[in-house]
Design brief:
The chain is of the alpha/beta class. It contains ten helices and ten strands. The chain binds adenosine-5'-triphosphate.
Length: about 250
């Protein structure tokens, strides 16, 4: 598997406190990866660094076949490179329909000039229907998004991110607040999405991580503590100690 993102020796301190400490790891180009770790392990800060929100004090982040340094890019440039981020809280346009939200996301992918003259063509409508099918909302295209369940809103937002065809999708705690059935559907969406791109899921819920059935990276004090299958990392004594707070 070729690497899409390579993080090496990255550190960042806030007021002298090292939130990320010589962090190194890589994500493949079509890979589903879960990142777990206790509170304060550095998971959010890692996503902030990759998306350009936080600048590290040291290290390298290389992206894509050409090993482009992400550290030279701002947040908008990084998004244009194909890195999408799903925050924990859904942020769909509540007074617009599911279809309108997906169309807007397709439109947002285009440059400013083309947006001026943009009218949804039949190809766009087809793409919207395909996206809706991908997230299981094909029967809800005409629904006002504000009336959707929490889980449906999360799926819609994932669909809006997929509309922009990211090569790497960072997803923060997608299972939070979901019913068991919604979690199952979310797993299916993420597993499918990761067949054609990298998907990194930060998650506290171990049952959800187990369902993802993917490689797991355990962060602790800003570094990688263990990596491998969930069974492998949860059998690691250091991981057990960290989770039990010993
Ligand atoms: N802007 C900031 N200023 C000061 N300290 C920060 C800042 N951002 C993060 N930290 C600290 O860095 C450490 C790592 O935080 P981070 O939010 O990345 O952890 P996390 O693994 O996402 O935790 P959680 O699971 O609770 O969300 C924490 O100790 C946090 O208090």
């Amino acid at each position: 598997m070729s690497q899409l993102l390579e993080v090496s020796g990255v550190s960042v301190s806030f007021d002298g406190f090292r939130a990320i400490n010589n962090l190194s790891f890589a994500i493949g180009s079509a890979e589903l990866r879960a990142i777990i770790g206790p509170n304060g392990a550095g998971k959010t800060t890692f996503m902030d660094i990759v998306t350009g929100k936080t600048r590290p004090d040291a290290g390298h982040i290389l992206w894509g076949d050409k090993s482009l340094s992400l550290l030279g890019l701002n947040e908008a440039q990084i998004a244009r490179e194909g890195i999408g981020r799903k925050f924990q809280k859904p942020t769909v346009f509540e007074d617009q329909t599911v279809e309108e939200n997906l169309l807007m996301a397709l439109k947002a992918k285009r440059g400013a000039l083309s947006v001026l003259f943009w009218k949804p063509a039949s190809a766009d409508m087809e793409r919207v229907r395909a996206l809706a099918a991908e997230i299981g909302l094909e029967d809800a295209l005409g629904r006002i998004s504000g009336t959707l369940s929490h889980g449906q809103k999360q799926w819609l937002e994932i669909g809006m991110l997929l509309a922009q065809e990211p090569r790497l999708l960072l997803v923060d705690e997608p299972a939070a607040g979901m019913t068991p059935a919604e979690r199952e559907h979310t797993t299916a969406i993420l597993v499918e999405a990761a067949k054609t791109r990298a998907v990194v899921v930060v998650e506290h819920d171990m049952e959800f991580v187990r369902r993802l059935n993917c490689r797991v990276t355990v962060l602790h004090e800003g570094s990688v503590l263990a990596e491998g299958s969930l069974d492998h990392v949860t059998a690691n004594k250091e991981v057990i100690d960290v989770y039990l707070g010993r």
